[in-house]
Amino acid sequence: MLDGQLSTTDVLFCLLAPVLLWLVSADSVFGEQQLSIITRNDGIVLLLCFVGFVYHLYRSGQHEDASDTVSSNESTVLLVVYCIAGVI
After folding, report:
1. What is the share, in percent, of the chain residues with pLDDT greater than 90?
2. Who has the most CB within 10 Å: 11, 14, 46, 51?
3. Cα(14)–Cα(42) distance, rounded to whole angstroms?
4. Does residue 28 surpass a pLDDT of 80?
5. Is the backbone of residue 69 left (phi > 0), alpha (psi -120 to 50) or beta?
């Protein structure tokens, strides 16, 4: 990222997230089901997309200056694991 500005990939993720959520929850539009529910498989897909976005943020954060980093890589990875565990 350049001086706090959003990159094109960040904007793409922000635009695709609600579209993906609609696609996995629109069972009544695409299928034979009466209710639009998010199944366990849909949740796994959404969770994997979230993990991919967090990984993208982690990789893009590594390209910033070392003086801007607050914590080490180990604590950052541990924080991401705690966040994912909290979501589950």
Report:
1. 1
2. 46
3. 18
4. no
5. beta
Query: For residue 49, what are the contacts with CB-CB under 8 A and spacing of at least 6?
Result: 17, 20
User: Cα separation of 71 and 83, whole Å?
Assistant: 16
Identity of the residue numbered 38: I
Tokens of 10: 């960040």
**Dist CA 8 CA 26 (whole Å):** 27
Here the tokens at position 56 are 């993208």
In this prediction, residue 2 has a pLDDT band, given cuts at 50, 70 and 90, of very low
* CA–CA distance, 64 with 73 (Å, rounded to integer): 13
Can you give the pLDDT at residue 52? 87
Specify the residue for token string 């924080």: 79
